[in-house]
Amino acid sequence: MDQERQILEYTAEYYRITVNDLVSSTRRRHIARPRQCAYLLCHELLRRGWSDIARTFGGRHHVTIMDGVQAVADRNDRREQAFLAAARAHFKRQMGF
């Protein structure tokens, strides 16, 4: 299983949505916010470029990825920050990246 897929599955499980939801075109908040968190994790943990992440998420434009990562930082939502901290620890400990 590739590393991007692991991040997608971890995010989907945490937020109780599907991987298909994460890569879909829906803009519903309960899907879009976890998707943006997954963008950030792919960029931060995997050191993937914006265009590479965009392809992973259904061929979005790279600017969409950049804006999504910035949105997570700007929101400073406690639940998102808790998820991101748990995800970082999980992937660094369990997956070695």
Automatic annotation (TrEMBL):
GO terms for molecular function: ATP binding; sequence-specific DNA binding. InterPro entries: DnaA_C (IPR013159), Trp_repressor/repl_initiator (IPR010921). One of its GO terms (biological process) is DNA replication initiation. Residues 3-72 form the Chromosomal replication initiator DnaA C-terminal domain. PANTHER family: ATP-BINDING PROTEIN RV3427C IN INSERTION SEQUENCE-RELATED, CHROMOSOMAL REPLICATION INITIATOR PROTEIN DNAA. This is Chromosomal replication initiator DnaA C-terminal domain-containing protein. It comes from Marivita cryptomonadis.
